[in-house]
Design brief:
Number of strands: 11
Distance between the termini: 47 Å
Oligomer: single chain
CATH class of the largest domain: Alpha Beta
Family: Belongs to the GTP cyclohydrolase I type 2/NIF3 family.
Keywords: Metal-binding
Largest sheet: 6 strands, mixed
Protein name: GTP cyclohydrolase 1 type 2 homolog
Pfam family, one: DUF34_NIF3
Radius of gyration: 20 Å
Shape: globular
InterPro entries: DUF34/NIF3, DUF34/NIF3_sf
Structural class: alpha/beta
Helix content: 25-40%
Number of domains: 2
Protein backbone atom coordinates (compact mmCIF):
# COMPACT_ATOMS: atom_id res chain seq x y z
CA UNK A 1 0.00 0.00 0.00
CA UNK A 2 3.02 2.24 0.39
CA UNK A 3 3.22 5.65 2.04
CA UNK A 4 0.02 6.62 3.91
CA UNK A 5 1.15 9.74 5.77
CA UNK A 6 4.39 11.70 5.71
CA UNK A 7 6.57 14.07 3.73
CA UNK A 8 8.74 12.45 1.06
CA UNK A 9 11.50 14.95 1.82
CA UNK A 10 11.66 14.44 5.58
CA UNK A 11 14.90 12.95 6.96
CA UNK A 12 14.74 9.41 8.36
CA UNK A 13 16.90 8.17 11.21
CA UNK A 14 14.59 6.05 13.37
CA UNK A 15 12.23 3.40 11.98
CA UNK A 16 9.73 1.49 14.12
CA UNK A 17 8.16 -1.70 12.80
CA UNK A 18 4.83 -3.14 13.99
CA UNK A 19 2.12 -5.43 12.75
CA UNK A 20 -0.68 -2.90 13.32
CA UNK A 21 -0.69 0.93 13.52
CA UNK A 22 -2.67 1.04 16.75
CA UNK A 23 -2.84 4.07 19.01
CA UNK A 24 -0.45 2.39 21.45
CA UNK A 25 2.04 1.68 18.65
CA UNK A 26 1.81 5.27 17.44
CA UNK A 27 2.44 6.48 21.00
CA UNK A 28 5.53 4.28 21.14
CA UNK A 29 6.73 5.71 17.82
CA UNK A 30 6.26 9.27 19.10
CA UNK A 31 7.97 8.59 22.43
CA UNK A 32 10.95 6.92 20.75
CA UNK A 33 11.23 9.74 18.24
CA UNK A 34 10.60 7.54 15.22
CA UNK A 35 10.55 9.25 11.84
CA UNK A 36 8.79 6.37 10.10
CA UNK A 37 6.38 3.70 11.31
CA UNK A 38 6.39 0.61 9.08
CA UNK A 39 3.44 -1.75 9.54
CA UNK A 40 2.09 -4.80 7.81
CA UNK A 41 -1.60 -4.03 8.31
CA UNK A 42 -3.14 -0.82 6.96
CA UNK A 43 -4.46 1.96 9.14
CA UNK A 44 -7.22 2.74 6.63
CA UNK A 45 -8.25 -0.72 5.43
CA UNK A 46 -11.67 0.58 4.44
CA UNK A 47 -12.71 3.95 3.08
CA UNK A 48 -13.37 6.72 5.59
CA UNK A 49 -15.13 10.07 5.26
CA UNK A 50 -13.53 11.78 8.23
CA UNK A 51 -10.28 11.72 10.18
CA UNK A 52 -11.62 13.76 13.07
CA UNK A 53 -10.34 12.71 16.49
CA UNK A 54 -13.81 11.49 17.42
CA UNK A 55 -12.75 8.10 15.99
CA UNK A 56 -9.71 5.94 16.68
CA UNK A 57 -8.68 6.16 13.02
CA UNK A 58 -8.93 9.94 13.09
CA UNK A 59 -6.94 10.13 16.32
CA UNK A 60 -4.28 7.92 14.75
CA UNK A 61 -3.92 10.03 11.62
CA UNK A 62 -3.84 13.23 13.69
CA UNK A 63 -1.22 11.84 16.07
CA UNK A 64 1.01 10.73 13.20
CA UNK A 65 0.80 14.07 11.40
CA UNK A 66 1.32 16.15 14.54
CA UNK A 67 4.37 14.10 15.56
CA UNK A 68 5.85 14.11 12.06
CA UNK A 69 5.84 10.31 11.96
CA UNK A 70 5.41 8.93 8.46
CA UNK A 71 3.40 5.73 8.06
CA UNK A 72 4.40 3.17 5.44
CA UNK A 73 2.28 0.06 4.99
CA UNK A 74 3.35 -3.15 3.28
CA UNK A 75 0.26 -5.33 3.37
CA UNK A 76 -0.27 -7.59 0.36
CA UNK A 77 3.27 -6.63 -0.72
CA UNK A 78 4.67 -8.52 2.25
CA UNK A 79 2.22 -11.39 1.76
CA UNK A 80 3.54 -12.23 -1.71
CA UNK A 81 7.16 -11.11 -1.28
CA UNK A 82 9.97 -13.66 -1.28
CA UNK A 83 10.93 -13.88 1.45
CA UNK A 84 7.69 -12.61 2.93
CA UNK A 85 5.26 -13.28 5.76
CA UNK A 86 4.61 -16.91 4.84
CA UNK A 87 8.28 -17.64 4.14
CA UNK A 88 9.22 -16.50 7.63
CA UNK A 89 6.44 -18.67 9.06
CA UNK A 90 7.61 -21.67 7.04
CA UNK A 91 11.18 -21.12 8.21
CA UNK A 92 10.04 -20.96 11.83
CA UNK A 93 8.39 -24.36 11.41
CA UNK A 94 11.56 -25.84 9.91
CA UNK A 95 10.16 -26.50 6.43
CA UNK A 96 12.58 -27.42 3.66
CA UNK A 97 12.19 -27.62 -0.12
CA UNK A 98 9.83 -24.66 0.03
CA UNK A 99 7.66 -23.63 -2.92
CA UNK A 100 4.72 -21.24 -3.41
CA UNK A 101 1.31 -22.47 -2.33
CA UNK A 102 -0.31 -20.64 -5.25
CA UNK A 103 0.72 -19.05 -8.55
CA UNK A 104 0.45 -15.60 -6.94
CA UNK A 105 3.34 -16.56 -4.65
CA UNK A 106 1.00 -16.39 -1.65
CA UNK A 107 1.65 -18.96 1.04
CA UNK A 108 4.33 -21.64 1.13
CA UNK A 109 4.53 -25.43 1.04
CA UNK A 110 7.47 -27.37 2.44
CA UNK A 111 8.55 -30.59 4.09
CA UNK A 112 9.51 -31.53 7.61
CA UNK A 113 12.83 -33.29 8.16
CA UNK A 114 10.94 -36.41 9.25
CA UNK A 115 7.30 -37.43 9.58
CA UNK A 116 5.60 -36.69 12.91
CA UNK A 117 2.11 -37.10 14.29
CA UNK A 118 -0.35 -34.25 14.00
CA UNK A 119 -0.33 -33.86 17.78
CA UNK A 120 3.48 -33.61 17.81
CA UNK A 121 3.42 -31.11 14.97
CA UNK A 122 0.80 -28.99 16.72
CA UNK A 123 3.04 -28.87 19.79
CA UNK A 124 5.93 -27.77 17.56
CA UNK A 125 3.79 -25.00 16.04
CA UNK A 126 2.83 -23.77 19.50
CA UNK A 127 6.51 -23.75 20.53
CA UNK A 128 7.66 -21.93 17.39
CA UNK A 129 5.11 -19.10 17.47
CA UNK A 130 4.53 -16.35 20.02
CA UNK A 131 2.10 -17.42 22.74
CA UNK A 132 -1.41 -16.00 22.48
CA UNK A 133 -4.48 -16.03 24.69
CA UNK A 134 -6.34 -18.37 22.35
CA UNK A 135 -3.51 -20.81 21.67
CA UNK A 136 -3.98 -22.85 18.51
CA UNK A 137 -6.91 -24.90 17.23
CA UNK A 138 -6.43 -28.21 15.45
CA UNK A 139 -8.79 -30.26 13.29
CA UNK A 140 -7.75 -33.80 12.49
CA UNK A 141 -6.59 -37.14 13.84
CA UNK A 142 -3.94 -36.46 16.53
CA UNK A 143 -2.16 -39.66 15.48
CA UNK A 144 -2.28 -38.80 11.77
CA UNK A 145 1.09 -38.56 10.03
CA UNK A 146 2.36 -35.17 8.91
CA UNK A 147 5.29 -34.57 6.57
CA UNK A 148 4.28 -31.99 3.93
CA UNK A 149 3.04 -28.69 5.36
CA UNK A 150 1.26 -25.73 3.76
CA UNK A 151 1.30 -22.35 5.50
CA UNK A 152 -0.37 -19.01 5.00
CA UNK A 153 0.36 -16.20 7.42
CA UNK A 154 -2.85 -14.42 8.43
CA UNK A 155 -6.29 -15.17 7.01
CA UNK A 156 -6.21 -18.28 4.83
CA UNK A 157 -9.51 -20.12 4.58
CA UNK A 158 -9.90 -19.04 0.95
CA UNK A 159 -6.96 -21.24 -0.08
CA UNK A 160 -8.30 -24.72 0.58
CA UNK A 161 -8.28 -25.64 -3.12
CA UNK A 162 -4.61 -24.70 -3.36
CA UNK A 163 -3.83 -26.67 -0.21
CA UNK A 164 -5.52 -29.80 -1.56
CA UNK A 165 -3.71 -29.42 -4.88
CA UNK A 166 -0.36 -29.08 -3.10
CA UNK A 167 -0.70 -32.51 -1.47
CA UNK A 168 -0.05 -31.03 1.99
CA UNK A 169 -0.81 -33.18 5.01
CA UNK A 170 -1.63 -30.16 7.17
CA UNK A 171 -2.39 -26.50 6.62
CA UNK A 172 -1.28 -23.84 9.13
CA UNK A 173 -3.01 -20.47 8.85
CA UNK A 174 -5.39 -18.23 10.81
CA UNK A 175 -8.92 -16.87 11.07
CA UNK A 176 -10.51 -20.16 10.06
CA UNK A 177 -14.29 -19.77 9.96
CA UNK A 178 -16.81 -22.45 10.87
CA UNK A 179 -18.44 -23.08 7.50
CA UNK A 180 -15.32 -23.14 5.27
CA UNK A 181 -13.56 -25.41 7.77
CA UNK A 182 -16.52 -27.76 8.11
CA UNK A 183 -16.78 -28.05 4.34
CA UNK A 184 -13.04 -28.62 3.98
CA UNK A 185 -13.08 -31.37 6.59
CA UNK A 186 -16.10 -32.97 4.91
CA UNK A 187 -14.22 -32.96 1.60
CA UNK A 188 -11.26 -34.59 3.34
CA UNK A 189 -13.55 -37.29 4.79
CA UNK A 190 -11.80 -36.80 8.11
CA UNK A 191 -8.35 -37.29 6.57
CA UNK A 192 -5.77 -34.96 5.10
CA UNK A 193 -5.21 -32.08 4.86
CA UNK A 194 -5.56 -31.47 8.57
CA UNK A 195 -6.04 -27.88 9.71
CA UNK A 196 -4.32 -25.70 12.30
CA UNK A 197 -5.53 -22.22 13.18
CA UNK A 198 -2.57 -20.58 14.90
CA UNK A 199 -3.93 -17.04 15.11
CA UNK A 200 -3.51 -13.99 12.88
CA UNK A 201 -1.10 -12.03 15.06
CA UNK A 202 1.07 -15.05 15.87
CA UNK A 203 1.46 -16.22 12.27
CA UNK A 204 2.38 -12.77 10.94
CA UNK A 205 4.32 -11.04 13.72
CA UNK A 206 7.43 -13.17 13.10
CA UNK A 207 7.91 -11.27 9.84
CA UNK A 208 8.74 -8.02 11.61
CA UNK A 209 12.25 -8.95 12.72
CA UNK A 210 13.04 -10.36 9.29
CA UNK A 211 11.81 -7.13 7.71
CA UNK A 212 13.94 -5.05 10.08
CA UNK A 213 17.08 -7.03 9.24
CA UNK A 214 16.48 -6.86 5.49
CA UNK A 215 15.70 -3.15 5.66
CA UNK A 216 18.98 -2.35 7.39
CA UNK A 217 20.89 -4.69 5.08
CA UNK A 218 19.40 -2.94 2.04
CA UNK A 219 20.36 0.47 3.40
CA UNK A 220 23.82 -0.95 4.08
CA UNK A 221 26.59 1.63 4.41
CA UNK A 222 24.07 4.47 4.16
CA UNK A 223 22.40 3.28 7.37
CA UNK A 224 25.74 3.07 9.13
CA UNK A 225 26.88 6.46 7.90
CA UNK A 226 23.66 8.24 8.87
CA UNK A 227 23.14 6.19 12.05
CA UNK A 228 19.76 4.90 10.95
CA UNK A 229 18.11 2.76 13.63
CA UNK A 230 15.27 0.29 13.22
CA UNK A 231 13.52 -1.71 15.90
CA UNK A 232 10.40 -3.83 16.33
CA UNK A 233 7.62 -2.40 18.46
CA UNK A 234 7.24 -3.78 21.97
CA UNK A 235 3.44 -3.56 21.66
CA UNK A 236 1.49 -6.79 21.25
CA UNK A 237 -1.35 -5.98 18.89
CA UNK A 238 -3.03 -9.34 19.41
CA UNK A 239 -6.58 -8.18 20.27
CA UNK A 240 -7.56 -11.16 22.45
CA UNK A 241 -6.65 -11.09 26.14
CA UNK A 242 -8.13 -14.27 27.65
CA UNK A 243 -10.46 -17.20 26.99
CA UNK A 244 -12.91 -19.06 29.21
CA UNK A 245 -14.66 -22.38 28.88
CA UNK A 246 -12.22 -23.93 26.40
CA UNK A 247 -12.59 -27.70 25.95
CA UNK A 248 -9.96 -29.26 28.18
CA UNK A 249 -10.41 -32.79 26.78
CA UNK A 250 -7.30 -34.58 25.53
CA UNK A 251 -7.04 -34.77 21.71
CA UNK A 252 -7.73 -38.50 21.63
CA UNK A 253 -10.99 -37.89 23.49
CA UNK A 254 -12.17 -35.05 21.29
CA UNK A 255 -15.03 -35.63 18.87
CA UNK A 256 -13.61 -35.74 15.29
CA UNK A 257 -15.10 -33.70 12.47
CA UNK A 258 -17.93 -35.18 10.40
CA UNK A 259 -16.63 -38.13 8.40
CA UNK A 260 -14.93 -39.68 11.41
CA UNK A 261 -11.35 -40.64 12.06
CA UNK A 262 -10.42 -44.19 12.96
Amino acid sequence: MGLVTGDLDQPVRRILLALDPTLAVIDEAREWGADVLVTHHPLLLRGVHSVATTSAKGSSVTALVRAGVALWVGHTNADVAEPGVSTVLANALGLTDQRPLSGENAGRVGDLAAPVSLAEFADAVAAALPATAGGIRVSGDPEGTVRTVAVMGGTGDDRFDDVRASGADVYVTADLRHHPVLEAREEARGGRPYLIDAGHWATESLWLESCRERLLATLGELAAATRVEARVSTQRTEPWTFVVGANAAQPDRAVPPTGGVS
